Batch of 3 targets.
Target 1
Amino acid sequence: MTASLERNSRHPLAGAILDAAQIERVRLLEPSNISEPPGRGLVGTVSGRSIRVTGRTKLTSEQPDIVGLLH
């Protein structure tokens, strides 16, 4: 789902995510409601699910209760 969202991204790491998805033959889905606010990551909807791609620091500063779920 991340690769589906990233194919519309301007971020330099989007290319690496898309390359990995292609190697693994991941079927990309059509994203909607895409937003890329500066410094806040990438958000959108894929297959009815809300997806957010952002850095660990940004994510944990905004949602400290999620720290225990990250590996």
Target 2
Amino acid sequence: MIDALDNSTADLLDTMNTLVNDEITPAQANAVVAKAKKKRVKYNIKTDAGRAKVPAGKTVWHTISPHKAIGWRAYEVGGIFKCRNGHIFTLPNSQGYSWEDALTAALAHFSVADAPVTTTVQDAVDSYVRDLRIRRGIYCEVESRKRLERLCEDLMAIPVHELTVDTLRNWFHSLKGAASTRNRVKSMLFAVLNASDIDPLITRKIKSLPTGDTSRNLLLSTEDVQKLIDASTGSMHYLTRYLSETGTRLGEVRNADRQDVDFTTGKMHLSGKTGVRDIILRSETLEWLKDVAPGRDGSLIPSDSGCRYKSGEHTYAFRRVVKDADVDPDCVMYSLRHAFLSRCVNSGISALPLAKYCGTSVLMLEKHYYHQSDEEQMVMINAVSL
């Protein structure tokens, strides 16, 4: 209130004393306040003379448009211009500005401040993987970032709002590798873009490629799995046996250290594609794992070089195993996981505990492994007691 009144200190004190000390009615108080408001001084900061009248230490604002204003902060000598549009900003070197100079500088600041934030694909990737780290752990963040930045390098500098169907389609068709791999990369990038509020109609127009991926179609028999174990030697033998007995992903065992296994309780800590989880190992698996020498880097099942398996290092070695075992040449490491899941389903394990054990979703298991006929569904529903 003091700043809003003129320099009539005596009048101001009289008004305050009346409000504080006198016993007055609410109507009288309102009248006193209304009288004080009439004495409010309006300073014209658009002129040199008007700015000179502003008391030192006081800031006077002049609205130039809704939610935007220019202010004059008076000092003992001179003053500076400020502007605000939700946030107060001091105009640099504005001591000698005229009103026109201050208006020009403020409008330039508002145009920059009000400009839409340009989010590039790189910005969207950074935001997405930070969230991925919180939800699924550092391994998912690192692996996803490496894959996206390597395979989407040509898109990283492009603002998300400038991406078109043609741009994304050309990028997708330029990817190398199997159709299933290219589809997975597309899904990763589109998850990033959808999280950054891209127009969903753009991503929906780019369809996945038809795949010839047989990793989920090829079902290894128990005899085929045993042939692979028998045909493998050295570190590949341990790796093949471990994957066939646990159904874990290759990336999860690559990340595993010997200290992740509690040989007393049989519990093993895993980290990989879908985050972290703990599983219980079979007693037979624990027995032979005890005899596997850990790698120099502490890895649970190291390569023959004594260090952790690198990405893709197993590929050619497993191809030789497949050839020596005389099984379907389409067999890949993932086929061991597929065989494990299929055996679990055939053994009567329900979807929920199996999904938790293998780090996947019930929806994925139902899509690929649990197939009920109409007759089976009829028997199941009739068995419910209502």
Target 3
Amino acid sequence: MTIREENVGAENMPTHGSLTKAGKVRSQTPKIPPKQKKNKPPRVRNRVEYVRRFLRPQTAEAMQVQ
């Protein structure tokens, strides 16, 4: 078996650009600052809603009873 017989499919495979040009577009793109996030992450947001809905009304009722 020769080397040519082993690599029969490899020589017919097309290449999609050369590896020397890899990353060219990304390096040329100007860097822009990220936008500020409008919402908090869900874990934090859910905790805030839990405190507002369930814990604060109890403390308000407890203050009125005393």
